[in-house]
Amino acid sequence: MDFDFSSEQMLLRQTVRKFVDDEILPHIAEWDAGGAFDPAIWKRLADLGLMGVCIPEKYGGSGMDYNSLAIVCEELERGDTAFRTAVSVHTGLNSMSLLQWGTEEQKEQFLVPQAKGEKIGAFGLTEPGAGSDVAALSTTAKREGDEYVLNGQKTWISLCDAADHFIVFAYTDKSLKHKGISAFIVERTREGFSSKAIKGKYGIRSGNTGELFFEDVRIPASNRLGEEGEGFKIAMASLDNGRFTVAAGACGLLMACIEESVKYCQTRSTFGKPIGEHQLVQQMIAKMEAGFQMSRLLVYRAGEMKNKGIRNTRETSLAKWQACDFANQAADDAVQIHGAYGYSDEYPVARFLRNSKAPVIYEGTREIHTLMQADYVLGKREDRKLNRMLPAWPFED
Ligand SMILES: Cc1cc2nc3c(=O)[nH]c(=O)nc-3n(C[C@H](O)[C@H](O)[C@H](O)COP(=O)(O)OP(=O)(O)OC[C@H]3O[C@@H](n4cnc5c(N)ncnc54)[C@H](O)[C@@H]3O)c2cc1C
């Protein structure tokens, strides 16, 4: 095991940190209050090579390893969860799925422009009647000659209005239950497709989340990702990558909670001393640090397994569950440390707390990950090699 970051990874971290400090933090309170971030940020992410950091260079990416994606997610979420969520769905849930499951033609057509940041990708699994229970989805894709016709609705989809391409899951044969689900690449420009943002979100307010509608949307059969009936497997494999980015982002939120709390501890005094000298405040700081360090180890272990081409569903689920719970608790404690001032938008910690909740819900709720971990330990679940694995790193030419 190697616990050191490479010089390339350290440079990447410095670059993203500077970008966050200079171009996100000065504006985030305003973007959060206004319900959207400046779309010019997309171009900046692309210019910095952050839209395809772990996608091979031959497909338009930066060709770095999977832990470099974790570094990007950590540093972006130190700025705000909305930016990490954008990279999670664009790279983790969409581009990495194209890399794993796409044909060479699909990679050329969809992955290359996404990795370069010329197009944005997103992931449509959740429906009004199907969240944790994926097999309850009701969107259908009917084969007609060389086309599929999609009908249905998705909800709570990140980047619903911003993305150009969506990976969408639909039943091609409902009688087969989850083995009748297939995956499709759907472009926003298809007739019959529309999207609508959800207003009044509790957190990640500068991020775009909402509904997708498919009314007789016709797509070529060549837009099917994987074989008919492989959709459930593709969705779960995609989540292995998405959850990894969510867990890494939670480490960034933990860093932000520590930074802000330490600053406040040093400036606020009660009973004749800085609050950082009260043991009960120290306890909250110590818990944040423990959560941060433990989460990081879990995240980078999962990343190392990805680098080696080893299936990591179990390890990624544990990292996602624990890191998001630690971040949620740390954000709650950060507000507590700030007292009444934490309960306003004068300090960023209230935003941290609001932002920390969605990751405990999306990409597998806390309860779903608890059940998964219990099943592994009880011998009721095991990970087997998939027919198509994410390529190991270093990538082959
Ligand atoms: C900000 C945000 C962004 C999102 N982005 C995306 C996206 O880009 N793409 C996408 O497809 N989805 C997205 N989602 C949706 C998200 O993945 C779902 O909300 C999540 O899977 C949970 O589904 P649900 O909300 O329907 O809750 P439900 O599945 O209805 O669960 C409700 C409650 O019941 C519990 N529960 C359910 N089943 C069990 C069980 N078997 N045992 C114990 N408890 C159980 C859950 O843990 C939860 O507490 C996003 C959600 C949010 C909040």
- Write down the overall mean pLDDT: 98
Major β-sheet annotation: 4 strands, mixed
Low-confidence parts lasting 5 or more residues at pLDDT below 50? none
- Assign the CATH superfamily of the largest domain: Butyryl-CoA Dehydrogenase, subunit A, domain 3
SSE run = HHHHHHEEEEEEEEHEEHHHH
Domain Acyl-CoA oxidase/dehydrogenase middle: 122-217
Cofactor: FAD
Domain Acyl-CoA dehydrogenase/oxidase C-terminal: 229-374
GO molecular function, one term: acyl-CoA dehydrogenase activity
Description of the structure:
The protein contains eleven helices and ten strands. The chain is α+β, with helices and mostly antiparallel strands and about 400 residues long. The protein folds into three domains: about 110 residues, Acyl-CoA dehydrogenase/oxidase, N-terminal domain (Butyryl-Coa Dehydrogenase, subunit A, domain 1), CATH 1.10.540.10; about 110 residues, Butyryl-CoA Dehydrogenase, subunit A, domain 2 (Beta Barrel), CATH 2.40.110.10; about 140 residues, Butyryl-CoA Dehydrogenase, subunit A, domain 3 (Up-down Bundle), CATH 1.20.140. Strands 1-4-5-8 form a four-stranded mixed beta sheet. A four-stranded antiparallel beta sheet has the order 2-3-7-6, covered by helices on one side. Strand 2 and strand 3 form a beta hairpin. Helix 1 packs parallel to helix 4, helix 7 runs antiparallel to helix 10 and helix 9 packs antiparallel against helix 10. The model has no long low-confidence stretch (mean pLDDT about 100). The site of flavin-adenine dinucleotide (FAD) has 21 residues, from strand 1, strand 3, helix 10 and helix 11.
